[in-house]
Structure formats: C-alpha cells, structure tokens
Amino acid sequence: MSAGSRAVLEEIQLIRGPSGLGFNIVGGTDQQYVSHDSGIYVSSIKEGGAAAVDGRLQEGDRILEINGTKLENLLRKMAVDLFRNSTDPVVLKVQHQNHLNGPLGSRSDRDSEGTSLAVIVVPVLLAAVAIYAFVKLRQRAARF
C-alpha cells in the first residue's frame, strides 16, 4: 500500500444464506491477485447473498482471518476449503482497502468503467467511421 493510503480493519459476522456466504475470493500463494502478495481478496459479491445483505464487505477487501484462522501463505484451494467448512456464524477479519489505490476489481474501478469504456469505444468508432469514409471515397473515385 502507498504511504498516503489507509487500510481499515473490521470484524464482520455473517450467517450463511441459501447461496452460502455470497462472495467469491481470489488470491493465495498459487494465484496471486496482487503482485508479490499471496493474500486472499474478495473478487465479487453476489447480489442478495449474505455479504451483500450485510453490506460491509466490499470487492477488493483483503480477508485476514476466518473464525480466528489466519489466511496467510495458503493455496487458494485451502482458503476455499476453510470458507466452505466454516460454521455459523462466520467471523471475518477484513482489511478494507483504500479503493482509490486498492487491488484491481475494487468498486472504485467499477465506478470509473463508464469513463474507461468511453476511452476505448470512441477511438474505435472514429476509426470505423474513417474506414467507411475512405472506402466510400475510393468507390466514388473509381466511377469517373
């Protein structure tokens, strides 16, 4: 994390719903989500799931512990097994990221998708219009 960013720690208690805890994770020693960091991160939150209903867990948050078990230096599969085998209530120790400087996939990234999409779509559309105009001009020139 950069010197100017602040991480906030929070303990979140969830009760498993019909679709489980309602979020997905990424990371681990075998599938690092953040370069040089084997932490376990929330990759997505399922709409209507336990985590979404609670509202405190956010995409990009790092999960430090589950029911008192630290999630350090684990393979992703081992972390998934810990989540699947946990008993209710599930107590998570979470490090909320400064989402302006947090891992990819954080909510702030999603908030800026409209701008990012415009940066990609506008040049592609302009290129398409330029190609179309070029083809039409060549067709006219060939007619004499």
From TrEMBL:
It is found in: Membrane. InterPro entries: PDZ, PDZ_sf, Synaptic_Scaffolding_LAP-MAGUK. The chain crosses the membrane at residues 116-135. It comes from the Eukaryota. Residues 11-98 form the PDZ domain. SMART domains: PDZ. This is PDZ domain-containing protein. The lineage of its organism: Eukaryota, Metazoa, Chordata, Craniata, Vertebrata.
